[in-house]
Amino acid sequence: MLKAEEIQQHNKADDLWMVINGKAYDLTEFAPNHPGGFKILLKYAGKDATEEYEPIHPPGLIEETLTKDKHLGKVDMSTFKSPDDPLAGPDVTGSKGEIVPTLAGCLNLDDIEKAAEVLLKPKAWAYYASAADDERTKNWNHEAFNAVRLRPRVLRNVTPADLSTTMLGHKSSLPIFIAPAAMGRLAHPEGENLLAKVAGDFNFPYIVSANASIAFDEVAKKSVAGQTLFYQLYVNKDRKKTEEQLKKVVNAGYKGICVTVDAPIAGKRERDERSKMDAESAADPSMRDSTAAPAASLAASMFSYVDPALAWDDLAWIKKVTGLPLMVKGIQTAEDAALCAAYGVEAVYLSNHGGRQLEGAPSALETLLEIRKYEPQVLKQCEVYVDGGIRRGTDVLKALALGAKAVGVGRPFMYSLIFGEEGVKTVASILQSEIAGSLRLLGATSLSELTPAMVNTRPLEVMIYDGIYTSPSKKSKHKL
Question: Which of 46, 92, 302, 351 is 20 to 30 A from 84 via CA?
């Protein structure tokens, strides 16, 4: 077996070995082509990179990527000492007297987020929390919900509370689903497997990210029998690879395809980029005073394969390959919602990617109001989902009252992974309790009783587009 002393000698750009999961690999020739940039590899040259590698790469990737002659063999890990990592997370032992967040102290989703900021490693927090440019759109997503007021009805019998609904014909115990979000293992080794387990236990859908840190087929194998899993699709520049992937998705038992269309390129996520620059500086001290552009951020690296030429006509191709219902994620205007209906899409998914793509894009709630104003028939032709900024049960009810079928929750579930399975359960339980309580306080006992008359959207209506409008459906109406 190889020992640490030998591995550590290969720590240069032209002689770069690395240890992952107890095995050594020669990455010298691969390093210049690494999608995440060369500098981060140099940081771990001659070292054990398992902790950095595993959360953001699916199992088996390095074995498949490198030729057999680059597989150097097993390593005696007892010969390694744990290196001091300048990017390691905060000390959470309490030895410095700081207040350590606990799951028991988390009463709402904001508490979960605050805990994650303390407990996650800086790089993981930067990836999850990052958004485009100044992150104003991310903040506005939630502020849009706050701008809408409720109009509760009283003296009604609200003894029972039925929160059940369906998504694409599949039953769900709650009007929520886990929105597609990547890199679950940045927070917990079991990452997406835990999200799937809890979604199955609670019986609500989970849209598995195309960039999940656990392979989609493994997530499906470990899921609860009969649970509803949908697959998020980014179309590859190599369409044959997409077809092969989709066939595997169908065989794995996924119930529908969620094609994401608002990310032909990665948005400018400065928080994520800054974290990447910190990693490069740690790898090479000369970078600390460098003005050279850093390597691609984690987000930009993951989007390098996405086909920016994707167009409306390609939707028929996706449906033909899979035979599964199709939802289109990333719709931000009434026109595109109408086009979704015209192209036979089963579900229109209103989203600005959690504010991570185009700064200044409308919140999903604004887009929903725009659809009600210009293309109300879409709400009858397709199921409509929203995500972005959901932090309370009342946020869910506001979207449902305005015509949404279900609401996606992303970041809170990712943050909760820092507490493992119990953390994910806590987020689901909080939302379940808040939705049930608020539904009854609103004067309803089932989701079907929610109506637009139960919300006051006037403060938000001033943000709705009011210019010249040409409807793709030629049946435009102009009343909310």
Answer: 302
DSSP secondary structure letters along 198-231: HHHHHT--EEE-TT-SS-HHHHHHTSPTT--EEE
pLDDT digits (tens, 9 = 90+) for 251-292: 999 999 999 999 988 888 888 777 654 544 444 443 344 444
Catalytic positions: 234, 262, 353
Fill in the amino acid letter for 315. L
In angstroms and rounded to an integer, the radius of gyration of the C-alpha atoms of the chain is 23
For 362, phi then psi, to 5°, come to -70, 155
- Computed from CA positions of residues 149, 154, 160, 166, in that sequence, does the dihedral angle turn out positive or negative? negative
B/e letters for 191-228, b = 16+ CB within 10 Å, e = fewer, are bbbbbbbbbbebbbbbbbbbbbbbbbebbbeebeeebb
Measured N-to-C along each axis, helices 364-374 and 393-401 cross at an angle, to the nearest 10 degrees, of 10
What does the pLDDT look like over 1-38, one tens digit per residue?
A: 898 889 999 988 889 999 988 889 999 999 888 877 77
345 within 8 A of 382, measured Cβ to Cβ: yes
What whole-number distance in Å separates Cα of residue 230 and Cα of residue 168? 10
Phi-psi region of 330 (alpha: psi -120 to 50; beta: other; left: phi over 0): left
Angstrom distance (rounded) from CA 389 to CA 372: 20
Structure letter (DSSP) for residue 284: -
Residue type, 232: Q
Q: How far apart are CA 217 and CA 214, in angstroms?
A: 9
H-run or E-run covering 456: strand 455-456
Question: Which helix or strand (DSSP H or E) is residue 140 part of?
Answer: helix 136-147
Beta carbons within 8 Å of 51's beta carbon, 6+ residues apart? none
